[in-house]
Specification:
By secondary structure, this protein is α/β, with parallel strands linked by helices. It has 2 domains: 97 residues, Quinone Oxidoreductase, Chain A, domain 1, CATH 3.90.180.10; 123 residues, Alpha-Beta Complex (Quinone Oxidoreductase, Chain A, domain 1). A 6-stranded parallel sheet has the order 3-2-1-4-5-6, sandwiched between helices. Strand 5, helix 7 and strand 6 form a beta-alpha-beta unit. The relative contact order is 0.16.
């Protein structure tokens, strides 16, 4: 709400009085919405509607995660679920921030598209051995955008001292048995990241102006066809985001 101690520090994501659409407040599938003025960020004239839509909850969220996990230029970043709406933009943003990026997908067809955005593409669900063989024992950072199906391989893909960024596919009921000894002995950092602050949105606009990022949109649906849009999301056949157009 802009008044608590966290908001005053610029960490609105930790607002003690937070009300988020789709969580504390009913969803956002509407032509109009009433929001607090201090929740808004001015969109530059050169930003397309697609890029503006993707910035707060995708690119800025990813940027905040990269910032918190201290991503450095020249590091290697592996992205799971790289053809998804979050993954394909994680690939592009990490490259824009100076990293070498490896995209992971289970589909040969999707791999052909991902080759446009990533430095390397690995196809398959058991990717850790190939990663360690090809990238000097492991990567610096893994962006885990899938969850339990790939997290074991993601952890094994990290070098000693590597960092795992957990994003997307949040299911509060989903569990995972973490090998604590392995994590400790390899000195691995695991960080969850779910949202972005207004300052992160502004930072992303600056990055994208210098190094353009292509909004990858699988499909657009009119608002009245939101159920069909959700079915497409669940199908897993797409590359990129699915947008609703009021």
């Amino acid at each position: 709400d802009g008044t608590c101690d966290m908001c005053l520090k610029g960490e609105e994501v930790y607002c003690r009085n937070r009300l988020s659409f789709g969580e504390e407040v009913d969803g956002f599938f509407a032509e109009y919405a009433r929001v607090a003025g201090n929740s808004l960020v001015k969109v530059p004239d050169w930003v397309s509607d697609e890029l503006a839509v993707l910035t707060p909850c995708v690119l800025a969220m990813l940027y905040r995660g990269f910032r918190r996990i201290n991503l450095n230029m020249g590091e290697t970043v592996l992205v799971t679920g790289a053809s998804g709406g979050v993954g394909v933009h994680a690939v592009q943003l990490a490259r824009a921030m100076g990293a070498r990026v490896i995209a992971v997908t289970r589909s040969e067809e999707k791999a052909k598209v991902l080759g446009k955005f990533a430095d390397d593409v690995i196809v398959g669900s058991g990717f850790s051995e190939e990663v360690k063989r090809r990238f000097n024992g492991g990567v610096d950072v893994v962006v885990e955008a899938v969850g339990t199906p790939t997290i074991s391989e993601s952890i094994r893909s990290l070098r000693a001292g590597g960092r795992l960024l957990l994003i997307g596919n949040v299911n509060p009921d989903e569990t995972y048995q973490l090998r604590l000894g392995y994590t400790i002995l390899k000195d691995i950092m695991i960080l969850g990241n779910a949202a972005a602050n207004r300052g992160d949105v502004a930072s992303v606009f600056g990055i994208v102006k210098a190094r353009p990022i292509e909004p990858v949109v699988a499909a657009k649906y009119p608002l009245r066809e939101f159920a069909e849009a959700l079915r497409m999301l669940e199908s897993g056949s797409r590359i990129g985001k699915v947008l609703l157009v009021p």
